Amino acid sequence: MRKNIVAGNWKMNNDLDASIELVHELILATDDIEIGNTRIIVAPTFVNLQKVREIVEGSRVEVAAQNMHQENSGAFTGEISAEMLQNIGINDVIIGHSERRAYFNETDELLAQKVSRALENNMNVIFCFGEQLEDRKSENHFKVVESQLKNGLFHLSEKKLGFVILAYEPVWAIGTGETASPEQAQEMHAFIRNLLKDKYGNEVAKNTSILYGGSVKSSNAKEIFSKPDVDGGLIGGAALKVNDFVAIIKAFS
Ligand code: PGA
Question: Greater confidence, 176 or 57?
Fold first, then answer.
Protein backbone atom coordinates (compact mmCIF):
# COMPACT_ATOMS: atom_id res chain seq x y z
CA MET A 1 0.00 0.00 0.00
CA ARG A 2 1.15 3.53 -0.66
CA LYS A 3 2.80 5.56 2.08
CA ASN A 4 1.99 8.91 3.58
CA ILE A 5 4.85 11.34 3.25
CA VAL A 6 5.61 14.78 4.62
CA ALA A 7 8.61 16.33 2.88
CA GLY A 8 10.18 19.68 3.75
CA ASN A 9 11.88 21.58 0.96
CA TRP A 10 14.25 24.03 2.64
CA LYS A 11 15.07 25.71 -0.71
CA MET A 12 17.99 28.20 -0.46
CA ASN A 13 17.51 28.67 3.28
CA ASN A 14 19.43 27.61 6.40
CA ASP A 15 23.21 27.85 6.65
CA LEU A 16 25.13 24.95 8.19
CA ASP A 17 24.43 25.91 11.81
CA ALA A 18 20.74 26.48 11.16
CA SER A 19 20.46 23.20 9.26
CA ILE A 20 22.09 21.26 12.09
CA GLU A 21 19.86 22.89 14.69
CA LEU A 22 16.66 22.38 12.72
CA VAL A 23 17.28 18.72 11.96
CA HIS A 24 18.28 17.97 15.57
CA GLU A 25 15.07 19.58 16.79
CA LEU A 26 13.06 17.67 14.20
CA ILE A 27 14.56 14.32 15.20
CA LEU A 28 13.77 14.98 18.87
CA ALA A 29 10.24 16.17 18.14
CA THR A 30 9.35 13.22 15.91
CA ASP A 31 11.10 10.48 17.83
CA ASP A 32 8.04 9.05 19.55
CA ILE A 33 5.05 10.45 17.70
CA GLU A 34 2.40 8.03 16.49
CA ILE A 35 2.10 8.62 12.76
CA GLY A 36 2.00 5.07 11.48
CA ASN A 37 4.27 4.48 8.51
CA THR A 38 4.41 8.16 7.48
CA ARG A 39 7.79 9.06 5.98
CA ILE A 40 9.43 12.33 7.05
CA ILE A 41 11.88 13.83 4.56
CA VAL A 42 13.88 17.06 4.57
CA ALA A 43 15.68 18.56 1.59
CA PRO A 44 18.54 20.88 2.62
CA THR A 45 20.69 22.78 0.16
CA PHE A 46 23.53 20.81 -1.49
CA VAL A 47 26.34 22.06 0.76
CA ASN A 48 24.55 20.88 3.89
CA LEU A 49 23.29 17.53 2.60
CA GLN A 50 26.11 15.38 3.87
CA LYS A 51 26.11 16.84 7.38
CA VAL A 52 22.34 16.55 7.73
CA ARG A 53 22.41 13.01 6.40
CA GLU A 54 24.98 12.03 9.03
CA ILE A 55 22.83 13.54 11.77
CA VAL A 56 19.62 11.71 10.77
CA GLU A 57 21.31 8.31 10.88
CA GLY A 58 19.22 6.01 13.08
CA SER A 59 16.27 8.45 13.27
CA ARG A 60 13.03 8.38 11.33
CA VAL A 61 13.97 11.48 9.34
CA GLU A 62 15.23 11.00 5.77
CA VAL A 63 17.16 13.40 3.55
CA ALA A 64 16.60 14.31 -0.09
CA ALA A 65 18.39 16.60 -2.55
CA GLN A 66 16.51 19.50 -4.16
CA ASN A 67 17.86 18.94 -7.67
CA MET A 68 20.50 17.12 -9.72
CA HIS A 69 22.05 17.28 -13.20
CA GLN A 70 20.98 14.92 -15.95
CA GLU A 71 24.52 13.67 -16.67
CA ASN A 72 26.65 11.53 -14.36
CA SER A 73 29.82 13.61 -14.77
CA GLY A 74 31.56 15.98 -17.14
CA ALA A 75 32.18 19.63 -17.91
CA PHE A 76 29.08 21.10 -16.28
CA THR A 77 30.41 23.79 -13.98
CA GLY A 78 28.43 24.23 -10.81
CA GLU A 79 26.33 21.11 -11.19
CA ILE A 80 25.86 18.00 -9.03
CA SER A 81 25.14 14.49 -10.35
CA ALA A 82 23.08 11.57 -9.11
CA GLU A 83 26.28 9.55 -8.70
CA MET A 84 27.69 12.20 -6.38
CA LEU A 85 24.51 12.26 -4.33
CA GLN A 86 24.45 8.48 -4.05
CA ASN A 87 28.07 8.56 -3.06
CA ILE A 88 27.24 10.59 0.07
CA GLY A 89 24.25 8.41 0.89
CA ILE A 90 21.46 10.49 -0.60
CA ASN A 91 18.86 8.25 -2.22
CA ASP A 92 16.01 10.68 -2.83
CA VAL A 93 15.86 13.73 -5.08
CA ILE A 94 13.25 16.37 -5.90
CA ILE A 95 12.96 16.90 -9.65
CA GLY A 96 10.87 19.47 -11.52
CA HIS A 97 10.09 21.94 -8.75
CA SER A 98 8.26 24.92 -10.23
CA GLU A 99 11.11 27.24 -9.19
CA ARG A 100 13.50 25.10 -11.26
CA ARG A 101 11.08 25.21 -14.17
CA ALA A 102 10.52 28.97 -13.92
CA TYR A 103 13.95 30.39 -12.96
CA PHE A 104 16.26 27.79 -14.50
CA ASN A 105 14.28 27.03 -17.64
CA GLU A 106 13.85 23.35 -16.88
CA THR A 107 11.57 21.91 -19.54
CA ASP A 108 9.55 18.71 -19.47
CA GLU A 109 12.09 17.15 -21.84
CA LEU A 110 15.02 18.00 -19.59
CA LEU A 111 13.12 16.78 -16.53
CA ALA A 112 12.39 13.49 -18.26
CA GLN A 113 16.15 13.04 -18.69
CA LYS A 114 16.81 13.91 -15.06
CA VAL A 115 14.16 11.47 -13.87
CA SER A 116 15.64 8.67 -15.99
CA ARG A 117 19.16 9.39 -14.77
CA ALA A 118 18.11 9.45 -11.12
CA LEU A 119 16.32 6.11 -11.44
CA GLU A 120 19.23 4.59 -13.35
CA ASN A 121 21.34 5.47 -10.32
CA ASN A 122 18.84 3.75 -8.00
CA MET A 123 17.53 6.97 -6.54
CA ASN A 124 13.91 7.67 -5.66
CA VAL A 125 12.33 10.72 -7.26
CA ILE A 126 9.86 13.26 -5.94
CA PHE A 127 8.50 14.63 -9.21
CA CYS A 128 6.85 18.08 -9.00
CA PHE A 129 4.41 19.59 -11.45
CA GLY A 130 1.42 21.92 -11.39
CA GLU A 131 -0.38 24.61 -13.31
CA GLN A 132 0.07 28.41 -13.33
CA LEU A 133 -2.71 30.73 -12.20
CA GLU A 134 -3.63 31.62 -15.78
CA ASP A 135 -4.01 27.93 -16.61
CA ARG A 136 -6.52 27.53 -13.83
CA LYS A 137 -8.35 30.73 -14.74
CA SER A 138 -8.69 29.56 -18.31
CA GLU A 139 -9.70 26.09 -17.09
CA ASN A 140 -6.69 24.49 -18.71
CA HIS A 141 -5.27 23.12 -15.46
CA PHE A 142 -6.12 19.48 -16.15
CA LYS A 143 -4.63 19.69 -19.64
CA VAL A 144 -1.42 21.30 -18.35
CA VAL A 145 -0.95 18.71 -15.61
CA GLU A 146 -1.64 15.88 -18.02
CA SER A 147 0.97 17.12 -20.46
CA GLN A 148 3.57 17.67 -17.69
CA LEU A 149 3.09 14.07 -16.58
CA LYS A 150 3.07 12.62 -20.08
CA ASN A 151 6.19 14.50 -21.13
CA GLY A 152 8.16 14.32 -17.90
CA LEU A 153 7.27 10.96 -16.44
CA PHE A 154 5.24 8.63 -18.59
CA HIS A 155 8.24 7.43 -20.60
CA LEU A 156 9.04 5.29 -17.54
CA SER A 157 8.33 1.59 -17.30
CA GLU A 158 5.86 0.40 -14.70
CA LYS A 159 8.71 -0.91 -12.59
CA LYS A 160 10.60 2.39 -12.64
CA LEU A 161 7.49 4.38 -11.82
CA GLY A 162 7.39 2.46 -8.54
CA PHE A 163 10.34 4.61 -7.40
CA VAL A 164 8.57 7.90 -8.04
CA ILE A 165 6.50 10.02 -5.66
CA LEU A 166 4.31 12.60 -7.36
CA ALA A 167 3.94 16.12 -5.95
CA TYR A 168 1.14 18.24 -7.35
CA GLU A 169 2.00 21.87 -6.66
CA PRO A 170 -0.20 24.51 -8.25
CA VAL A 171 2.22 27.37 -8.89
CA TRP A 172 -0.30 29.97 -7.72
CA ALA A 173 -0.28 28.38 -4.26
CA ILE A 174 3.48 28.16 -3.73
CA GLY A 175 4.79 30.66 -1.20
CA THR A 176 1.75 32.87 -1.74
CA GLY A 177 -0.25 31.92 1.34
CA GLU A 178 -3.03 30.92 -1.02
CA THR A 179 -3.79 27.21 -0.76
CA ALA A 180 -5.82 25.04 -3.06
CA SER A 181 -8.97 24.09 -1.19
CA PRO A 182 -9.07 20.48 0.00
CA GLU A 183 -11.70 19.89 -2.70
CA GLN A 184 -9.52 21.40 -5.43
CA ALA A 185 -6.59 19.26 -4.28
CA GLN A 186 -8.70 16.10 -4.17
CA GLU A 187 -10.19 16.81 -7.59
CA MET A 188 -6.75 17.13 -9.18
CA HIS A 189 -5.26 14.21 -7.26
CA ALA A 190 -8.10 11.95 -8.36
CA PHE A 191 -7.52 13.11 -11.95
CA ILE A 192 -3.80 12.31 -11.62
CA ARG A 193 -4.47 8.88 -10.15
CA ASN A 194 -6.78 8.20 -13.02
CA LEU A 195 -4.08 9.13 -15.53
CA LEU A 196 -1.77 6.69 -13.74
CA LYS A 197 -4.44 4.03 -13.97
CA ASP A 198 -4.96 4.59 -17.70
CA LYS A 199 -1.24 4.39 -18.39
CA TYR A 200 0.00 1.83 -15.85
CA GLY A 201 -3.05 0.03 -14.48
CA ASN A 202 -4.91 0.02 -11.23
CA GLU A 203 -2.21 -1.52 -9.00
CA VAL A 204 0.33 1.17 -9.87
CA ALA A 205 -2.26 3.92 -9.51
CA LYS A 206 -3.24 2.62 -6.09
CA ASN A 207 0.33 2.29 -4.88
CA THR A 208 1.72 5.66 -5.99
CA SER A 209 1.92 8.41 -3.36
CA ILE A 210 0.65 11.77 -4.57
CA LEU A 211 1.62 14.75 -2.39
CA TYR A 212 0.08 18.20 -2.41
CA GLY A 213 2.30 21.29 -2.17
CA GLY A 214 1.55 24.99 -1.93
CA SER A 215 1.15 26.94 1.31
CA VAL A 216 0.46 23.90 3.45
CA LYS A 217 0.35 25.00 7.11
CA SER A 218 -0.53 23.41 10.41
CA SER A 219 -3.97 25.00 10.15
CA ASN A 220 -4.90 23.39 6.82
CA ALA A 221 -2.79 20.20 6.67
CA LYS A 222 -5.21 17.89 8.40
CA GLU A 223 -8.11 18.74 6.13
CA ILE A 224 -6.05 18.53 2.93
CA PHE A 225 -4.33 15.27 3.94
CA SER A 226 -7.66 13.73 4.92
CA LYS A 227 -8.74 13.65 1.28
CA PRO A 228 -8.62 10.11 -0.11
CA ASP A 229 -6.17 10.80 -2.95
CA VAL A 230 -3.85 13.12 -1.02
CA ASP A 231 -1.01 11.16 0.56
CA GLY A 232 0.84 13.98 2.26
CA GLY A 233 2.57 17.19 1.39
CA LEU A 234 5.66 18.92 0.05
CA ILE A 235 6.19 21.82 2.41
CA GLY A 236 8.24 24.97 1.79
CA GLY A 237 7.97 27.89 4.21
CA ALA A 238 6.39 25.93 7.04
CA ALA A 239 9.21 23.36 6.95
CA LEU A 240 11.68 25.96 8.20
CA LYS A 241 10.22 26.13 11.71
CA VAL A 242 10.26 22.90 13.64
CA ASN A 243 6.97 23.50 15.47
CA ASP A 244 5.10 24.27 12.25
CA PHE A 245 6.58 21.30 10.40
CA VAL A 246 5.91 18.88 13.25
CA ALA A 247 2.34 20.14 13.53
CA ILE A 248 1.88 19.34 9.83
CA ILE A 249 3.40 15.87 10.28
CA LYS A 250 1.02 15.29 13.17
CA ALA A 251 -1.89 15.66 10.77
CA PHE A 252 -1.26 11.93 10.27
CA SER A 253 -1.52 11.07 13.97
P1 PGA B 1 5.32 26.66 0.24
O2 PGA B 1 6.26 25.93 -0.84
O3 PGA B 1 4.87 25.61 1.22
O4 PGA B 1 6.19 27.71 0.85
O5 PGA B 1 4.16 27.23 -0.53
C6 PGA B 1 5.92 24.66 -1.32
C7 PGA B 1 6.98 24.18 -2.27
O8 PGA B 1 7.61 25.01 -2.93
O9 PGA B 1 7.21 22.98 -2.39
Answer: 57
Atom of ligand 1 nearest to the CA of 9: 9
Beta-carbon contacts of residue 186 (< 8 Å; ≥ 6 apart): 227, 228, 229, 230
Residue 84, classed as helix, strand or coil, is: helix
Task: Please pick, among 62, 106, 131, 169, the residue that the annotation labels catalytic.
Answer: 169
155 is catalytic: no
Distance 244 CA to ligand 1 centre (A): 13
Nearest-CA neighbor of 93 among 115, 76, 61, 120? 115
Q: Which atom of ligand 1 lies nearest, measured to the CA of 239? A: 3
* Distance set, CA 128 to CA 9, 92, 207 (Å): 12, 13, 18
Going by alpha carbons, the residue nearest to atom 7 of ligand 1 is 236
- In the three-class reduction of DSSP (H, G, I as helix; E, B as strand; rest coil), residue 13 is classed as coil
- Which pLDDT tens digit goes with each residue over 177-196? 888 899 999 999 999 999 99
CA–CA distance, 14 with 102 (Å, rounded to integer): 22
Distance, in Å, from the CA atom of 96 to the CA atom of 110, rounded to the nearest integer, reads: 9
